[in-house]
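It would be a great kindness if you could assist me with a short task in structural biology. The matter concerns a single protein, recorded as an amino acid sequence and a row of backbone structure tokens. Kindly check, if you would, that the fold set down in the tokens agrees with what the sequence suggests. Thank you for your consideration; the sequence and its tokens are set out here:
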Amino acid sequence: MKRTIIAFICSCLALIAASQDRSAFISLQTGPSVPVGKYHAQELEKPAGSFATTGISVSLEGAWFIKPWLGVGGQFGMHFHPVDVSTLGYYKVIEDPFMNDVYIRSDPYRNYALYAGLYFEQPVIQRLSFTAKALGGILFSKTPYQLYKAEYEMAGLQYYEITTSGDLEGSFMAGAGFKYSLKNCIGFTLNGEFTYNQCDFDFEKLDGTIRTDQKVIAFVNVLLGVFIKI
């Protein structure tokens, strides 16, 4: 699967190199990234939710148009989602009858994605165009490091940690939006993007065995960007 995705990306890059005499653009965009589905779910039942909350997305992308309406290109994006530690701690206390209280310090979920694929553009009115894209690639997702300070009924305060784990999976992203040209070479973009991924995270248990947690990593990005025609 991963070899097929890498071959797909290389093929798209080859098409890009062969079409450099056509119109092209590069764009830098950022905005809120909203977890959806099980990634956002606040529940501990298996399969457990991730308690992820709205974070931030930053991406750099570019495309070369081999036809006025069709282009090939790629995108690199970074997407960070904090953890709702208050709600997570509340459910942990409810689940454990011997736990009186818990304080959790958590890093965010970190997701790094590299995509390549097809870009579409259709003029709407002067200077304004409708855009869409269908991209495939890879996503590296990393769970947060978490430190727990728990107060138990008989044992008192106890500290423990959950170490981070990462997984590399094939990924697909779809997006649509608008592009507004201020001048011939610069303008603004407004894009919505969606990606859905299933990742397997391995954790080492106290007895040395490995536990694999399957988690859904799905989120919607709403991005405002600046593009330059090249």
